[in-house]
Design the sequence.
């Protein structure tokens, strides 16, 4: 009899596991990385030293909860900004002229469309009306993960509207993302799968942030960046977002 | 009945006995970590393409299915293709796009239907609903090969599938299948018998209830092929497959072989069929203008009737019902409704599919044995797509050069060798042609690798090719007086010897030995095959169309293995299931086949691996797929074949063609299966699939390089794949797997000192990956690192930090690469890049400490790096280079500090001038002097391209610094003089600054005091070096 009860109990546990919904997983994920503390986060300022063939380049990455952002670094006295967005204009510094240049209109529009995805598309999917689906369970880096598909607003690729889908792989045990994945929709790499892996989660002001992020092409090369310091709600140079006149 | 029960019991006991083989199970499947294979192609001769599918609306999207190389997608009209089906069976029968959701829903039917002898098999039908990013298997697992998938344009849940079915045996899983629930369930709606499958299925694009299905009675065995029978027929349904009628009105009577059929999309009443029939005069193309009700014979030219089993594909221009193209040896096209044909333009022969762009009929893709071609003028001239590395190797071997070369022969694409590494990557131009025809086994002479042996099908030729002198000689064994006809396999056994470099061994039904590089031959065996006369009639093979290509030659020796420990011990395996061994160099032979318990009779002995661990040790791989038996058979003997133990477990899901033994760890074995690479670490108690960049491709041969420990895979569909340096797998154990973190041992890392200007391939050519030239620091994590900090640092022997590296975090094996560089010097700030100054010097040879800090735990490991022993430099020269490099490194930092000092004063004086509107002579004079001095030290204006200013000291210093730092010989006197000159410039600048301190700076400081300001804060040199910027 005991054995039967145990079997029934195990079956129940299995069912519970199977019955996980995207909402359950997302809620647990949100709690695992700090829950309500994220509501107080208005900005994230992250500092790293990126190694470029032995040359260490100090990098500052800023992300605002309203979607504004920039990445800045200095090499041999020259200052560069990449991936800046001030809410209207997306721009970067040209390495040759060292002058700011606007991104092509598709890029700017795509950045605008994703501006409200803070801290990311999965956690804001309900608010933004993104369709989500639990695709199954996959092992990433040896970790069993829930694979969740997030169907965002379409994006522009070479002037055409194309699907904008991101996959989240959430650790079944700890409920933090191990990896995200998207299909590259434009340029030479169109059709390839871009992946970012997350590790070194650490707490800053009550929220957990992946201090190490490795981005690359599936089955191809990748580059890791590890942040030495992350500041929440620090004083940000507001002018840094603006496209220089 | 009792006997059957007993047999079952005996089999069970046998399996249990195998399972109880002594040893501990080591399951490594989760622990291969980031060990990743690399693909080196080649793509210059590409490989067989079986199917092409165009997006109906977007001409940029094209899918192709390869015979053994999976599914590839192009997003740019065929300029570049990306593999999208790596995890699944790579033999592709059909790819179809759902016309109602063409951007997302794609179906793939596995199992090629161009049923040549070397064809692989399929394992069902797959569906993607996201444009090929992910796939779900939708059943039909036993379908073996799928000819066609037709999706109802009005209802995507209704799909019809033409299943050709098993090639090598009877099967009831054939015919036309239909689903009405998107593939969840299937109904077989048209079935003929267990020998006859659906070889083509087409749907009227304007009326999805109208279907045409051709059925083909066919069978291949290892020794014969039959196309044709009374059950081959063409059927039509007008009610969505509920009822079917034969539509032969106008066809000849009697047996049919394979029938190609297609509908003209612009006028569905026009239907074409190409039939293989009994009488040659009736073979050819037929046209119907009434939806198949009546047929009219139009043309029986060679291009239409040649090899129906291989070329039964016909397509019609989507906009013109009279433009019709037929696959064939060269491909044919008619522009008069099928009355006359001409060949398509020049390209690789053996055409399997042709597609017209639905929106532009001039744009044509053609699938051939040699890759995919694209035409922009309706097939008149064509260009090959150069980024599809789907070549089909039968075999692979290597030499001992550095870098080593890889040798092998390809299905219909000659014999080749190419480097395992090449400047800029392994390009098409790196491959060298060393044989013609279908290529198979290619071997370098063991000690003189410029001598290469190769062969073509059926040993029609075995060549010895001196690649240096370009001398070519046919060296195959010819029959002599008293010999019967020699029987050579299509893929004839050929090997060199580990003992005698001039020895060659070749298998017909006899084993032939030459000790003079093939000039003279001796038979050293009797007929080692079963010599079953019922299996040696290959010349009559083919059925309704005789197909005497040599592909069905049987009762031949297929594998030869000379023991690496004793040249007298030679193993021979035959295609008809014998395994024989001699221990006296061929004087006597023992047929040990009967000792292989549990092996079905006459199962092809595909490979024998003579072990390095004992003269009597060997592994034998048997492959039953040509008898429709897809089970794995691998046996091990340690007593010259007297007894054999199976080392197969349920982990091996499909038949195996090859096994490779490790040279150090007797329990480490690699199996080349029809669905990818498998590894055992416990001598065969368990097997794990190795996936990391190894697709589920048929692996025909494996080679483990004795010097580099690289595992080289000769795949039949994805070219050559190399898993570099398997030593971490070799040392994996249950003990290591329980450790939090374990560093793997490594031999000294060699710092490569070779340079190149890279490759010359164009952007759209495939270039194979090179192995890394960096140090690979490898460690094992029993669990992925996700929370908390994890860092890696390298320290020199004095404990000084050399550099920091990004650590790997995944469960299992992690690899961190170090390029042997320390950190670059701190460089003076300027207005443009000083490229040379970014150079980070290489460390000296010696011992270094790797330190991983993982949370509170610290793990350390000593590694050693060495200079390239093949480099021409002496230690004295290196020492001189290192000394000068260090001097220049420091010089860069001194200059950086000096410019920093100038910048600090400059900022102060400019701030002063900004704050004070009244002119100030002292400040203005200092500002001018600082500008002038700084302008001598660094570029202060311009951009990073052609607007750059004239190089100053920083740029010149960076130039000489990187010039000397990146060459490992002693600096030249001219270079040293250049440094002295730059040092003078620097000294003059510093002297000028010292002078300023007592003149203009002093005067400015007085002005600062007047305004109650302080002099700028200048950090010490040491403090300055710690600044991030």
Sequence:
């Amino acid at each position: 009899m005991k054995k039967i009860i145990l079997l029934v109990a195990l079956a129940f546990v299995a069912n519970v596991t199977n019955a996980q919904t995207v909402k359950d997983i997302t809620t647990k994920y949100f709690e695992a990385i700090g829950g309500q503390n994220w509501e107080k986060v208005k900005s994230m300022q992250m500092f790293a030293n990126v190694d470029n063939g032995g040359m260490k380049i100090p990098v500052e990455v800023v992300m605002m909860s309203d979607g504004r952002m920039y990445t800045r670094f200095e090499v041999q006295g020259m200052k560069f900004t990449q991936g800046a967005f001030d809410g209207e204009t997306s721009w970067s510094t040209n390495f040759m002229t060292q002058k700011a240049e606007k991104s092509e209109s598709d890029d700017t529009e795509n950045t605008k469309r994703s501006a409200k995805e803070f801290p990311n598309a999965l956690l804001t999917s309900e608010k933004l009306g993104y369709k989500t689906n639990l695709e199954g369970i996959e092992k990433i880096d040896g970790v069993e993960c829930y694979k969740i598909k997030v169907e965002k607003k379409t994006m522009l690729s070479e002037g055409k509207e194309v699907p904008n889908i991101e996959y989240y792989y959430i650790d079944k045990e700890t409920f933090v993302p191990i990896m995200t994945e998207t299909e590259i929709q434009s340029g030479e790499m169109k059709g390839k799968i871009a992946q970012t892996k997350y590790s070194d989660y650490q707490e800053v002001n009550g929220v957990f942030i992946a201090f190490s992020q490795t981005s690359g092409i599936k089955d191809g090369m990748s580059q890791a960046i590890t942040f030495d310091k992350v500041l929440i709600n620090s004083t940000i140079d507001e002018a840094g977002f603006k496209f220089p006149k | 009945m009792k006997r059957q029960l007993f047999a079952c019991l005996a089999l069970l006991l046998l399996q249990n006995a195998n399972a109880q083989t002594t040893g501990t199970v080591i399951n490594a499947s989760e622990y291969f970590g980031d060990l990743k294979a690399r693909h080196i192609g080649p793509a210059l001769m590409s490989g067989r393409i079986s199917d092409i599918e165009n997006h109906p609306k977007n001409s940029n999207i094209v899918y192709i299915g390869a015979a053994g190389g999976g599914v590839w997608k192009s997003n740019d009209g065929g300029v570049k293709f990306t593999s999208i089906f790596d995890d699944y069976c790579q033999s592709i029968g059909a790819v179809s796009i759902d016309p109602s959701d063409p951007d997302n829903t794609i179906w793939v039917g596995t199992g090629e239907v161009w049923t040549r002898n070397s064809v692989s098999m399929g394992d069902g039908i797959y569906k993607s609903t996201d444009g090929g990013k992910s796939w779900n298997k939708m059943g039909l697992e036993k379908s073996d090969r799928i000819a066609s998938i037709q999706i109802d344009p009005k209802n995507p849940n209704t799909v019809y599938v033409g299943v050709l079915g098993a090639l090598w045996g009877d099967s009831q899983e054939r015919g036309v299948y239909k689903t009405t629930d998107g593939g969840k369930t299937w109904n077989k709606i048209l079935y003929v018998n267990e020998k006859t499958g659906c070889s083509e299925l087409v749907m009227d694009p304007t009326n999805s209830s109208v279907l045409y299905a051709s059925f083909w009675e066919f069978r291949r065995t290892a020794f014969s092929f039959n196309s044709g029978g009374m059950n081959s027929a063409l059927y039509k349904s007008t009610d969505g497959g509920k009822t079917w009628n034969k539509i032969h009105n106008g066809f000849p009577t009697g047996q049919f072989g394979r029938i190609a059929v297609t509908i003209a999309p612009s006028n569905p009443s026009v239907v074409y069929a190409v039939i293989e029939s009994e009488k040659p005069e009736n073979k050819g193309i037929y046209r119907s203008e009434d939806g198949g009700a009546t047929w009219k014979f139009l043309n029986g030219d060679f291009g239409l009737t040649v090899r129906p089993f291989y070329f039964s594909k016909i397509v019609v221009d989507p906009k013109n019902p009279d433009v019709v193209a037929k696959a064939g040896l060269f491909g044919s096209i008619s522009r008069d409704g099928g009355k006359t044909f001409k060949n398509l333009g020049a390209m690789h022969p053996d055409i399997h599919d042709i597609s017209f762009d639905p929106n532009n009929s001039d744009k044509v893709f053609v699938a051939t044995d040699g890759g995919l071609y694209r035409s922009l003028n309706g097939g008149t001239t064509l260009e090959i797509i150069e980024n599809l590395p789907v070549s089909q190797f039968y075999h692979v071997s290597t030499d001992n050069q550095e870098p080593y070369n890889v040798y092998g022969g390809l299905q219909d694409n000659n014999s080749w060798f190419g480097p395992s590494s090449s400047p800029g990557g392994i390009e098409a131009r790196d491959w060298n042609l060393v044989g013609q025809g279908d290529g198979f086994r290619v071997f370098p002479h063991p000690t003189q690798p410029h001598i290469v042996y190769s062969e073509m099908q059926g040993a029609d030729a075995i060549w010895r090719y001196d690649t240096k002198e370009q001398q070519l000689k046919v060296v195959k064994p010819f029959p002599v007086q008293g010999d019967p006809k020699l029987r050579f396999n299509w893929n004839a056994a050929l090997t060199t010897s580990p003992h005698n470099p001039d020895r060659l061994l070749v298998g017909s039904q006899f084993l032939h030995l030459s000790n003079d590089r093939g000039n003279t031959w001796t038979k050293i065996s009797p007929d080692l095959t079963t010599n079953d006369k019922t299996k040696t009639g290959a010349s009559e093979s083919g059925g309704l169309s005789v197909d005497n290509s040599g592909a069905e030659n049987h009762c031949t020796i297929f594998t030869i293995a000379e023991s690496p420990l004793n040249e007298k011990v030679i193993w021979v395996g035959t295609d008809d299931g014998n395994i024989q061994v001699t221990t006296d160099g061929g004087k006597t032979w023992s047929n040990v086949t009967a000792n292989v318990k549990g092996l079905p009779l006459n199962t092809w002995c595909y490979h024998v691996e003579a072990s390095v661990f004992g003269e009597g040790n060997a592994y034998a791989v048997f492959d039953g797929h040509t008898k429709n038996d897809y089970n794995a058979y691998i046996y091990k003997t340690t007593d010259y074949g007297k007894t054999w133990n199976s080392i197969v477990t349920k982990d091996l899901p499909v038949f195996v063609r090859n096994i490779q033994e490790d040279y150090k760890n007797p329990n480490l074995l690699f199996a080349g299966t029809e669905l990818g690479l498998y590894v055992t670490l416990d001598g065969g108690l368990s097997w794990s699939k190795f996936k990391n960049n190894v697709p589920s491709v048929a692996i025909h041969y494996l080679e483990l390089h004795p010097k580099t420990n690289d595992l080289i895979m000769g795949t039949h569909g994805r070219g050559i794949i190399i898993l570099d340096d398997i030593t971490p797998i070799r040392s994996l154990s249950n003990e290591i797997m329980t450790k939090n973190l374990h560093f793997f041992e490594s031999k000294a890392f060699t710092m490569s000192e070779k340079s190149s200007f890279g490759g010359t391939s164009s952007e759209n050519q495939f270039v194979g990956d090179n192995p890394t030239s960096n140090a690979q620091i490898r460690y094992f994590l029993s669990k992925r690192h996700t929370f908390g900090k994890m860092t890696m640092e390298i320290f020199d022997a004095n404990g000084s930090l050399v550099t920091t590296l990004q650590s790997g975090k995944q469960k299992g094996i992690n690899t961190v690469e170090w390029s042997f560089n320390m950190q670059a010097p701190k460089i003076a700030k300027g207005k443009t890049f000083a490229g040379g100054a970014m150079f980070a010097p290489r460390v000296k040879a010696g011992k270094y400490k790797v330190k991983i800090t993982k949370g509170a735990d610290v793990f350390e490991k000593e590694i050693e790096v060495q200079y390239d022993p093949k480099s021409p430099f002496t230690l004295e020269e290196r020492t001189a280079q290192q000394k000068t490099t260090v001097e220049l490194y420091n010089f860069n930092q001194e200059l950086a500090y000096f410019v920093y000092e100038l910048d600090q004063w400059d900022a102060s004086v400019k701030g002063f001038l900004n704050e004070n509107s009244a002119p100030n002579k002292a400040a203005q004079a200092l500002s001018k002097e600082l500008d002038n001095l700084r302008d001598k030290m660094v570029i202060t204006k311009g951009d990073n391209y052609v607007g750059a200013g004239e190089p100053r000291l920083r740029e010149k210093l960076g130039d000489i610094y990187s010039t000397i730092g990146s060459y490992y010989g002693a600096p030249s006197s001219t270079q040293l003089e250049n440094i002295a000159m730059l040092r003078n410039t620097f000294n003059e600048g510093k002297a000028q600054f010292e002078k300023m301190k007592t003149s203009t700076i002093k005067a400015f400081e007085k002005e600062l005091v007047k305004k109650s300001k302080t002099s700028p804060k200048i950090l010490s040199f040491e403090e300055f070096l710690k600044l991030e910027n």
Remarks:
- Confidence is low (pLDDT under 50) at residues 1-21 of chain B.
- Chain B touches chain A through 58 residues (CB under 8 Å).
